[in-house]
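Hi! If you just cloned this repository, the fastest way to understand the data is to look at a raw example. We've pasted two of them here, unedited. The first protein comes first, obviously.
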Amino acid sequence: MVRRPVLPRPVLPEGNAVSDIFDEVNEELRAERAQRLLRRYGSLLAGLALLAILGVGAYQGWKYYQAQEVGRQAQAFLAAMRIADGPDAQRQSALPAFAKLAQNGNAGYRTLARLREAALKADGGDNAGAAALWNEVAADTGADPLLRDVANLQWAMHQIDNGDPAAVAARLAPLAAPNNPWHALAQEQQGLLAMRQGHDNDARDIFKRLAQDVMAPNGVRARANALLTRLGGQAGG
């Protein structure tokens, strides 16, 4: 009888040693896979990283540019204001600076420049040009609502004597609401419009309310009292 040779049994690692071997294999596979991905997409990833860096740099640069531009606009506006508030003979020379800001400034300075330009035009006798600018601001939905109300009020004030009464009344009505910051000035214009139309009783009622309104500006109350006297009424009557 031929004996078969007895082969030694392979010695396998026991316990944690087996799991360690599998972990090493998995790590090598992952590393190999990562290397293949890096070789395939490395240039794309590098490009994306570069774009991200450039994007952040561009954003910061744009913010810096905007800050510088706002500073330049502020200086230009203040320089024009100094001229506009200076001697009468020089005030109209500020118009080109305001017109430039009205065209190229940011939203805030565009609105302020148009309002100041309109006031200068009105002072210089160009009522049509002033009215056009006030209408632009009033219709500008991007402008501050408070400044849009100023434009409507200025337009109405300069139309009190000769403008269409119905159009003037329509502009003044929302401004005269008690919750509007300009209500006292708007109500004063409503009283003047009533006087122009010969509605003296309505005018007296308006001026009496204004004269008694402790929240109204002192100038408005003083003018209301003077107009009441002119109309034969009294604030306390």
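Ok, and the second one:
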Amino acid sequence: MLNLISTPIGNLGDISQRALDALSNADLVICEDTRKTGFLLKHFEITKPMLTFRVDNEKRALPRILRILEEGKNVVLVTDSGTPGISDPGFLVVRAALANGIEVNAVPGPSAFVMALTLSGLPTTSFTFRGFPPHKSGPRKRFFEIDVLSPHTLIFYESPYRLQASMQDALAVFGDRRAACANDLTKKFEQVKRGILSELLEFYNSEPPRGEYTIVIEGYPKDRANPPG
């Protein structure tokens, strides 16, 4: 059996009892980084063998993981934080397990984009999560343009190294829409900034970004006469 276990995105107190039970009962824990997962397990006094499963070794590690699952082992998959498969490894092993008739279960839990959305003050009835934009400006603008007329609230992840550049491109593509930027969610210095894109860009140009960011941008208003451009 393969168990997908969501882990805290910052505050270790957010882990669920079901997640702890699943980790305690696992024969093997598959993780992105054995150091980070090892810290989590040690904090809760759990000792388990671990196997690394990252973006750069997914295809190489997959056959070994399938063999272990086919032996009937109870395997847990976690990522460094949050929910496996959400802008993190997980999809390939889930698809392969299902294709081979292996049962897959999940223990839900923290997800940064859901928390950022609910804190943003923007509509939550419908939204589109787009993950990380491309690193370079040209592809990034084209990536944004796909959703320029979408009425749904848009959600993106971004690193501190590209936050200002991404926001500049978002402003150019979407126009000066309402938005929110959240970082260090559930941690001591959690921060959510709200405003229009130009205001947020001005803030982060004066306050260097730190930590991983979730950007939430309002969808295209249906009553607007002309699209941004």
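That's it. A detail worth noticing about the second one: The chain has two domains: 2-107, 112-217.
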